[in-house]
Amino acid sequence: MPRAGLDPAVITAAAAGLADEVGPANVTMGLVAERLGVRAPSLYKHIAGQADLNRRIAVLVVTEMGDALRDALQGRAGRDALEAAARTLRAYVVEHPGRYASTLPLNPEGPDDPVAVAGGRVLDSLAAVLSGYDIDPADTVHAMRLLRSLFHGFAAIEAAGGFEMDTDVDRSFDWMIDFIDRGLRK
Amino acid sequence: MPRAGLDPAVITAAAAGLADEVGPANVTMGLVAERLGVRAPSLYKHIAGQADLNRRIAVLVVTEMGDALRDALQGRAGRDALEAAARTLRAYVVEHPGRYASTLPLNPEGPDDPVAVAGGRVLDSLAAVLSGYDIDPADTVHAMRLLRSLFHGFAAIEAAGGFEMDTDVDRSFDWMIDFIDRGLRK
DNA sequence: AGCTAAAAGCTAATAGAATTAGCCACATCT
DNA sequence: AGATGTGGCTAATTCTATTAGCTTTTAGCT
Lengths: 186, 186
Known about the structure:
The structure is a homodimer.
Chain A lengths: L7 H15 L6 H7 L4 H4 L6 H24 L4 H18 L1 H7 L10 H18 L8 H20 L9 H17 L1
Helix pairs in contact in A: 1-2, 1-4, 1-6, 4-5, 4-6, 4-7, 5-6, 5-7, 5-8, 5-9, 7-8
The first copy, chain A, binds a DNA duplex (30 and 30 nucleotides) through α3.
């Protein structure tokens, strides 16, 4: 039995991929193992269990989002940056609905939690977007939470198929970006 | 063995209550049965299985939200209505985080799906809120989606403990209501 | 009141998933 | 070559969902 070259990152990537393909609820240890050409118990040599695996997926997701955001925001400011950030996050969720959904039940355990650390980078990008507007420093936290809530809510509902097809979701998305931009401009 | 007087509604209520108490992931058939003074297999005389139970919880949640919203909006309009709606939904999620979370993975199967029907009543209430503003009819759908996304996103993040404690979440909530109100006023 | 039949519980059995224990081969380092 | 630790495997355990089949209650009818 030749070695399979597993490590936590490889397993996490496989599980995240499966979540996108078959839905988070159907990602079983056995399925992940099969995808990697290995038996289920072997996974435990690298990860502590299902809870650990989910936490790692969450870190992966938030890290990927942070990277995508940083790339997308290069050289942009103001409304341009807002739009780029919104589109980037939405695209990520639409392309990876499963892994995104599997991070939902997770709350960081503290400031040192890797999920919180990776999340911090996403927040930094959102802060960068807001820096392009003239916002009272005391209100920045609120504006940040507004963006987070809106982006997350929209993405979650869209990924779950919650919007009726009748009216174009793209159009609503553009309308929302406009709405926020105008509001932040005051 | 006297009869326990079970029916789908009683089982659904028990499961929803447990979801709030122990978290959706820990709601097991056995636990629900125990709470009702019955053995697990007996539940299957009334519900089809776990998936069915979750769908029923979703209907319960959306129905309860719709009722609460309708009550809260009685005799209110404009900013007053917006604020009442937002507070009502937020309060519901904070009080029932478990049952709310267990409805997240659910997408209505079609217009006849009871989840969609109950959801329609919530949307009607949101439409009523928007009717207090002077919005181009062509934009109403977009504004509705904005409200849905924002309320859902904020509630989901707060329920999951996603906001840092440092800055008062209540204050951010009020700020967001103001932001939306000003934007809708155009 | 007594009969019948459907409904509602129960116990026992099945099946699937996570996790643990314990064994053995491979790979690495000298 | 040989010692050693890591990574994989099989077997066993536990927990949960679900199904099968039996028994009692209860509602409806005469």
